[in-house]
Amino acid sequence: MLVVSKDLNQATYAAPSIVNHYAQLNLLQPAEQAILDLLKQQGAKLKMLDIGVGGGRTTQHFSAIASDYIGIDYSAEMIAACKKRFKNSAQHVSFEVCDAKDLSRFADNSFDFILFSFNGIDYTPHEDRLDILKEISRVGKSGGYFAFSSHNLQGIEKQFDLRKQLSFNPLKTYVNLVMAALLYFFNRSVSLIQIKASDYLILRDESHNFRLKTYYIRPKEQIHQLSEEFKDFRIYSWKQELEIKDKDELESICDLWLYYFCTIQ
Ligand SMILES: C[S@@+](CC[C@H](N)C(=O)[O-])C[C@H]1O[C@@H](n2cnc3c(N)ncnc32)[C@H](O)[C@@H]1O
Question: Are both 231 and 246 inside the same structural domain?
Fold first, then answer.
């Protein structure tokens, strides 16, 4: 039997303490609320795929607008937590262990709405990310919707820039510099010059104590990456329900992750 070893990120998402953490989350982020409101305006109930469902934070909110809701995750431990958490939920809600890289169990044009929330897509290498986007466009209906969030390279660039850590408040300066020192330590092969010159990079950030390798991308590059298979992009800072419409704002925004809502071509 072929034993496929889990990569560092996948192993992290299987750890009991991390699974428990996600299984207790319940609130939507403001950008997710804006997207849910947009979908509600469509009126019809949707066939929905919730990729990287984790502990089911989004399930209760989004399954309410779905005729069929399937949550998938490559962590069997996360899926077990969802099944336990939603054991009494409606019949149209189900969960399956499945890697987003291989959605072959789902037919072409199956879903009206596909969600990959809270930066779940950022835990795969670049080539796998492109394959995942292709798979999503294949299983999504033409004219259906895809929403996801991704880490913003502009945000981490600011954290790497030591001059930008200085503040009139000495305590804030101290905390910022300690965080910058940790970032430099865990990303010893990366420089600020390299970040400035990159459209996307894989970095280790403070989430889950620097255990994860995380993909960061500039919003302009993210739109470029999506543009073959998706259209009509709406972009939100995770912190706000208001769409970012201004091009200059998009190219300067430093919030650590952004939500992308688009139509499948
Ligand atoms: C940051 S957690 C977010 C969990 C949940 N969506 C939430 O918002 O609370 C990312 C989730 O994506 C899952 N994930 C990452 N890469 C995946 C992949 N290639 N296929 C399926 N799930 C994946 C992880 O196992 C993890 O549960």
Answer: yes
